[in-house]
Specification:
451 residues, alpha+beta, 2 domains, five-stranded antiparallel β-sheet, 14 strands
């Protein structure tokens, strides 16, 4: 029985093709469907991978963790992931011998992505020939170089002895004693909304954008607090957040209008770098690693976002071993040689204040207050909009640079006012993001500069 003659197929998400770093659409077989959802399994194995190196069951396995973290984020965009339904999954113990007790109890989990069970295979693929797995062009990641393609594929059931899991063999038969350390095919399964391929309505898209951006910025904030509380931060946590940040920024980096809240990501990244720089010397004690590397990665993320072009698909991977590759972002280079927008002119004025100090000239309170008021009036125009010009984010970046410049240069003639300057920027940012300039204290803080 040919699988193609029984089930219709759909394309949803994309994953890396074998031997290349290019992605290809994933083809799914629709096993069942109702008015609200589809139950699907990949037509071919997406890769070859072990079940678990320590022989653990589905609920604690490496493959379950990988499917619901790395795979779901790599294969599905932020707009596709909400269509994947979290499902109550029951996994039984499969053995021909009598079994009782805790070791044989059913396992109950909630998963977005999972492997099929033996019961599901028998229900949807009753004939052995229908279970035979074609070799796939995906399957690019393996744990052994000589096992890049396989016809056998993992199920989620525990096998006939400790450290074993169930497997569908090349001939369609079940194998109940396969070591979980074997490298075998992975065919993800999931439930997705029936309207998975519909374009999101504008209001839903805006809400989703804001949710994703808030999630990323909150994660950076959490890491900053972890640094302050002297908690250990694992390299994988930082790397995953950099990947998540990259995926978020690349969704908007070629657009002129971007969600207002995206500036918070840059603010929180800068805050994290500031706190992290303070403990770099104690990195062994903190468990912190490669501050300079992270700094260069964040710089690359910013540069690609503002220029509208990323030099490579994954700058954080390309630059991970190059601690000396630190490029100072100079927004000046992005606004020369073309007509400037109002926002860019303001950004350049703030840069001009820093340049004035570098040339040994004092900045008067009056010109600082005037520029703050001009910035306030300009930001008011966008405070009630969900989408703003990308250059607004650049303006906030420059404000943060100016604040840091004044705070850390003890010889700066405004150094004694750096707390007041910080207060103005914080309050103005809050008023902008909460759409409430009327009830904010921006004017009061600006006037306080001359007290």
């Amino acid at each position: 029985m040919d699988n193609n003659s029984v089930f219709r197929t759909i394309h949803f998400g994309e994953f890396y093709k074998a031997e290349t770093y290019e992605k290809e659409k994933i083809e799914w077989m629709v096993l069942s469907e109702d008015e609200e959802k589809l139950f699907v399994v990949s037509k071919k194995a997406i890769l070859s991978r072990r079940f678990d190196k320590n022989g653990r069951k589905w609920n604690d396995s490496e493959i379950r963790q990988w499917l619901n973290t790395d795979f779901i984020n790599e294969a599905f965009s932020h707009y596709e992931q909400p269509s994947i339904i979290k499902t109550d999954v029951t996994t039984t113990f499969v053995t021909e011998e009598p079994c009782a007790g805790y070791e044989c109890a059913d396992i109950h989990t909630q998963d977005k992505i999972f492997l099929l069970s033996a019961e599901e295979v028998e229900r949807y693929f009753p004939e052995k020939v229908s279970r035979i797995q074609e070799k796939s062009d995906l399957a690019s990641y393996t744990l052994e170089e000589d096992r890049k393609h396989t016809n056998a594929w993992w199920l989620r059931n525990t096998g006939g002895f400790s450290g074993a899991a169930l497997l569908v063999l090349e001939d369609g038969n079940f194998c109940g004693d396969a070591s979980t350390q074997n490298i075998e095919g992975i065919r993800p399964a999931m439930y997705i909304s029936r309207n998975y391929n519909e374009l999101l309505p504008l209001e839903k898209q805006i809400y989703l954008d804001e949710y994703i951006i808030r999630k990323v910025s909150d994660h950076w904030s959490e890491l900053s607090f972890a640094v302050l509380e002297m908690k250990r931060i694992s390299p994988s946590e930082i790397q995953n957040l950099l990947k998540e940040t990259y995926r978020t920024l690349t969704a908007f980096h070629t657009k002129n209008l971007v969600p207002k809240g995206i500036s918070r990501i840059f603010i929180e990244m800068d805050s994290f770098l500031y706190f992290a720089s303070m403990i770099e010397e104690n990195e062994d004690k903190m468990g912190f690693y490669h501050y300079k590397t992270i700094h260069s990665i964040v710089t690359a993320l910013k540069k690609g976002f503002f220029s509208g072009e990323y030099e490579c698909e994954f700058p954080f991977i390309q630059m991970a071993d190059d601690e000396n590759n630190i490029v100072k972002i100079n927004l000046d280079t992005y606004i020369f040689n073309r007509r400037l927008s109002k926002t860019e002119k303001l950004t350049y004025k703030w840069f001009g204040l820093m340049e004035k100090d570098w040339n040994g000239k004092n900045i008067s309170i009056e010109e600082l207050q005037a520029l703050f008021k001009e910035t306030r009036d300009h930001l008011k125009k966008y405070s009630t909009s969900n989408s703003v010009p990308k250059t607004i984010v650049g303006l906030f970046e420059m404000l943060k640079d100016f604040e840091s410049h004044v705070a850390f240069d003890e010889n700066h003639n405004l150094h004694n006012l750096y707390r007041e300057i910080t207060d103005i920027i914080v309050v103005m940012s809050e008023a902008f993001h909460t759409c409430d300039f009327c009830n904010s204290d921006v004017d009061k803080f600006i006037d306080r500069l001359s007290d």
